[in-house]
Specification:
heterodimer, A: 205 residues, mainly alpha, 9 helices, 83% helix, elongated, B: 127 residues, 5 helices, 60% helix
Chain lengths: 205, 127
């Protein structure tokens, strides 16, 4: 990420809001340093180089359109694609149905919070696969993205040039969140296997 | 009507909450341990916000347009100082200038810093 960041920052300084919009849109599909760019954008706005309201508008717009694109593609072609690549069993499994129910039951908090933590794309895909209502998804995506964009841009505006010191904290926070997710997933797998083993022992007795 | 979703069980929820608390504690420790290096830059003496840019922060990814604006330089000052003939000026980066002139970006950054210092000392003396 550190090797592409200088190029991305140059891109922002050269092309302004068009760059902000395209980075925000593409960050849904590619591993781009969108949070850092938004932080830097807030600092640039504080220095008078960009306008904070335009920054928030174009960044939110890019995020929202990116999320909607991902959701629509997953909704229309997601299951078909998964079946084609040999995951038919997964689609037809009980766990998948439970996941769909969970996503639809907790649409609001799941979609909203995933805009703030680095799980946005995964939730977009799962929401699409679960055939979540488009209006519901759009409402929470718009709300979540606006809150996220305003929050990060204002932090950048507040810090001014000190934003460069804080990027390491954001990177560390991202790593911590990723570790939590991995621990959670591994613990789920472990307890599931343990439960299965215990059931087997009970039935053999 | 009961609607118990088994996707996240009670035990998994406890583990997730514990993991979030542990991660929160480590994050707080990280910020607290690094606060001393953050503080001089984050909490500026006269303003608690909008830390201004200083010459030593100039980096190769910055454009001349950006440098001119944040340091309030005359648009042609650095162009004349570096004898830049590129039509795209000031929308070129220090890195791009370094490639065009085959000079190292570190050298160009040092020169930019010196020119800015000279600009402000001559402006002060002229008053």
């Amino acid at each position: 990420m550190h090797t592409i960041l200088p190029s991305v920052l140059s891109f922002v300084l050269l092309y302004g809001y068009a760059a902000i919009f395209s980075i925000s849109y593409l960050a849904v599909f590619l591993p781009l340093p969108q949070t850092v760019v938004l932080l830097a954008g807030g600092a640039f706005a504080g220095q008078g180089y960009l306008n904070i309201f335009s920054l928030i508008f174009f960044s939110s717009l890019g995020n929202i359109l990116g999320d909607l694109t991902c959701f629509i593609l997953a909704r229309k072609y997601g299951k078909e694609l998964l079946m084609k690549i040999g995951l038919k069993k997964l689609i037809l499994s009980k766990k998948f149905t439970e996941m769909e129910t969970f996503i639809n039951d907790t649409a609001g908090p799941t979609v909203f919070i995933s805009r703030i933590i680095p799980l946005g794309t995964i939730v977009d895909i799962l929401s699409g696969l679960s055939k979540m209502s488009f209006k519901k998804f759009m409402a929470y995506v718009i709300a979540g993205n606006i809150v996220y964009t305003i929050g990060v841009a204002l932090v950048g505006l507040f810090l001014g040039n000190a934003w460069q010191n804080v990027t390491s904290i954001f990177s560390a926070a991202g790593i911590v969140i990723a570790i939590i997710i991995v621990i959670f997933a591994l613990s789920r797998i472990y307890f599931h296997k343990l439960k299965h083993r215990m059931k087997k022992t009970e039935s053999s007795n | 009507m009961e609607n118990k979703n088994k996707f996240i069980s009670h035990r998994s929820r406890k583990i997730l909450i514990a993991a979030v608390i542990v991660a929160g504690i480590f994050s707080w420790l990280y910020v607290a341990l690094n606060m001393s290096s953050l503080r001089p830059r984050t909490f500026y003496l006269h303003n608690y916000y909008r830390q201004p840019i200083v010459v030593k922060d100039i980096s190769s990814w910055m454009t001349f347009d950006y440098i001119n604006k944040v340091f309030h330089l005359s648009p042609s000052y650095l162009k004349d100082a570096f004898k830049i003939s590129d039509q795209k000026y000031p929308r070129i980066t220090i890195e791009q200038l370094s490639k065009e002139t085959k000079a190292s970006s570190t050298e160009i950054i040092k020169n930019v810093q010196n020119y800015i210092v000279i600009y402000f000392s001559s402006s002060t003396n002229g008053q």
